[in-house]
Recover the amino acids of this structure.
């Protein structure tokens, strides 16, 4: 299968909300070059195409293997969610392969006794979540509270925080953070 590089570049550029001028500026090329490639009037060398794709940013491999013309995936089977956690803490990330995500959405599972660690977590942005089942002790700064099903939290994630399952059943949370830290 051959790919129409010009049409594919235009579709990818449009999908990322970039004008020809903006992509050219980011890539350090002229907007005329972008136009010529998209019209298939110029066949770019691999290095030229890589330079243009760096302005998105997107790798050559992603450009040729992802079907960006149809747009990014919007539905994700549970089997495709990678687990970024370890041991008794499971952190399954939605849309892990999607480039330029503005947020991270996680399905979090804490086994009984699970803990995010003695060292409090801290990163820029905001985080929020809702407990779906079980109970979790959430500590944010000097405040601590045990949350159960239906209870929620939302805070500036630059405030040191920690999660611990002190109960006897698995705790499940659906959470989001922005910007994505995963």
């Amino acid at each position: 299968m051959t790919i129409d590089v010009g049409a594919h570049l235009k579709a990818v550029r449009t999908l990322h909300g970039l004008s020809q001028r903006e992509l050219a500026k980011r890539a350090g090329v002229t907007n005329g070059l972008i136009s010529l490639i998209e019209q298939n009037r110029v066949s770019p060398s691999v290095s030229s195409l890589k330079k243009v794709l760096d302005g998105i940013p997107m790798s050559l491999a992603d450009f040729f293997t992802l079907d960006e013309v149809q747009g990014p995936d919007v539905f994700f089977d549970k089997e495709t969610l990678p687990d970024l956690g370890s041991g008794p803490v499971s952190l399954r990330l939605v849309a892990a392969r999607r480039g330029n995500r503005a947020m991270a959405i996680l399905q979090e599972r804490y086994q009984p006794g699970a803990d995010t660690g003695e060292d409090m977590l801290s990163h820029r942005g905001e985080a929020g979540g809702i407990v779906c089942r079980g109970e979790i002790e959430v500590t944010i700064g000097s405040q601590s509270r045990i949350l159960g099903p239906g209870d929620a939290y939302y805070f500036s994630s630059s405030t040191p925080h920690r999660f611990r399952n002190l109960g006897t059943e698995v705790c499940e949370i659906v959470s989001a953070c922005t910007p994505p830290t995963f």
Summary: The first strand starts at residue 89 and ends at 93. Strands lie at 89-93, 104-110, 126-133, 136-140, 143-147, 152-156, 161-164, 171-178. The two ends are 34 Å apart (CA to CA). The helical segments are 5-15, 20-27, 31-38, 46-54, 60-65.
